[in-house]
Amino acid sequence: MSLLETHSLTAHYGDFQALFGMDIHLDEGETVAIIGANGAGKSTLMRSISGVLTNGPDQVRFDGQPIGGLAADEIMARGVAMVPEGRRLFPSLSVEENLLIGTYGRKVQGHWSLQTIYDLFPILKERRNHPGAALSGGQQQMVAIGRALMSNPRVLLCDEISLGLAPVIIKDIYDAVPRIQEAGASLIVVEQDISQAMKVADRVYCMMEGRVTLEGTADTLSREAIHDAYFGGAAA
Amino acid sequence: MIWIDTIIQGVLLGGLYALFAAGLSLVFGIMRLVNLAHGDLIVFAAYLILLLVSLLGLSPFLAAIIAAPIMFCVGWALQRHVLNRVLGPDILPPLLVTFGLSVVLQNALLEVFSADSQRLPAGEIATASVQMGGLNLGVLPLLTFASAILVIVGLNQLFYRTELGRAFRATSDDAVTAGLMGIRPDRIFATATAIAMLVVTLAAIYLGMRANFDPNIGPARLIYAFEAVIIGGLGSLWGTLVGGIIIGVAQTVGAAINPEWQILAGHLAFLLVLLIKPRGLFPRAVD
Ligand SMILES: Nc1ncnc2c1ncn2[C@@H]1O[C@H](COP(=O)(O)OP(=O)(O)OP(=O)(O)O)[C@@H](O)[C@H]1O
Ligand SMILES: [Mg+2]
């Protein structure tokens, strides 16, 4: 049994169907990358798992329990945290308050605390009293990651944490990933930047138009196969 | 000297309006909900206090201590079971529902308590006054003003110094992302309205002790509260106090010139501020 699984997961926006029976799984301690072009449905998948979109209870299972029908806060309370696409910091909260919101209403135990987040991203300690909006894009992304880690999740969902950032900054952010893995979280990393995703992931799912088009371990998939699955080439 | 006295009376009256408005401001700031029944809820609380006063023979302040938790629950239930259902991107449904609630409350109060005007027994403090620098200030208006300051300081502490306040601000910024952080927006909204009803209870004491009330005066109180919130800048509690003071001073000064101008002067001051600063005096940076 995997830590997190989806079964024939479907998702709709009104009449528009965005996911068509997705089956993915994430094992304990694993990092899985989800890659795919714009509009493939990657964020929709993340929203379904995290409870922003609700699904049939059994379409998403976590730790053996059906969670597809739960609301976002309940899923978060069970140990699945999300770094949403576009960072989405709270503008009226300072950097530190943004981090603290990740522990709202409960005592969490584990590796991550304000102190260890500041060790991971030292610049945030300097900026801790600034409003989130006053930070650079890369620093905002660090806050968004730290905010999700503060709940000490068992699964961390990262939706395009490299979006809109310069390559050097992306490297800084991804340098933190091994430390997040060591602290015990399993990760799902959504990326458009394939090479970046391949570096941190054990396995990769490629998505197109709401379906999985390719699945495999990061070291066995050829560039051509990924290219085809990504852009819908001859093999797809 | 007469003018100074008039202005001070106006400032103190502004404290009452700020008390009327603080709950409205709190709720609007967190969930962008304009509660058109706010004035009627104050009147409802005043009747509740009156009922406890006459049934149990308590003083209005003691009765309010019993009424406060009841109003807290009323606010929680109202938000949880009624208003949360209509909150959404469209602002019209909550306006219609609270307007309907206003009408229902007025009629229910009329049915139960009749149209006779009532008053909370204030005892000695109704007429007591203190001398201050040659001015004669009523104890009741001073108490009202002090309560307004206390409420605003208290709400600001709650907002900016507590975990709940952090959740209030986060939910107000972005309810979906707040959900991802483990916050339940519907509970946050219910808690906010419940807290607003505590302020409403306090406002009801002064409403009922200062002058007569009957089931139909809610909407007029709402207008003053509304004007105070808007000229103060939506979402700013200190702004709401300043807004209340501006309306209070305009009314007393207007009344000093000609008693018929009292109400009109308040509304004119409101329009004037909006002409100069359309977003109010202390608008929030993010919106
Ligand atoms: N709120 C919405 N309402 C309607 N349709 C939506 C909504 N969000 C996404 N979609 C549609 O669902 C499909 C999948 O979108 P999604 O955001 O999941 O893609 P994505 O793979 O995350 O893309 P990107 O790489 O641009 O982030 C797209 O066709 C998109 O237009
Ligand atoms: Mg996306």
Key features?
heterodimer, A: 236 residues, alpha/beta, Rossmann fold, 4-stranded antiparallel β-sheet, 33% helix, globular, B: 287 residues, mainly alpha, two-stranded antiparallel ribbon, 11 helices, 75% helix, binds adenosine-5'-triphosphate, binds magnesium ion
Kindly state the mean pLDDT of chain A as a whole number?
91
Proper CATH architecture of the domain at 4-90 and 154-231 in chain A:
3-Layer(aba) Sandwich
Order of helices and strands of chain A: EEEEEHEEHEHHHHEHHEHEEH
Biggest sheet strand line-up of chain A: 8-9-10-5-11-12
Number of helices of chain B: 11
Radius of gyration of chain B equals: 19 Å
Helix content of chain B: over 70%
List the bound ligands. Answer: adenosine-5'-triphosphate, magnesium ion
Tally of helical runs of chain A: 10
Q: What overall geometry of chain A do the principal axes of the alpha carbons give?
A: globular
Oligomer: heterodimer
**CATH homologous superfamily descriptor of the domain at 4-90 and 154-231 in chain A:** P-loop containing nucleotide triphosphate hydrolases
Number of strands of chain A: 12
Low-pLDDT residue spans of chain A: none
Q: SS-based structural class of chain A?
A: alpha/beta
Give the helix proportion of chain A (percent range). Answer: 25-40%
Major β-sheet profile of chain B = 2 strands, antiparallel
Q: Which class of the domain at 4-90 and 154-231 in chain A in CATH terms? A: Alpha Beta
Largest interface: A-B, 26 and 19 residues
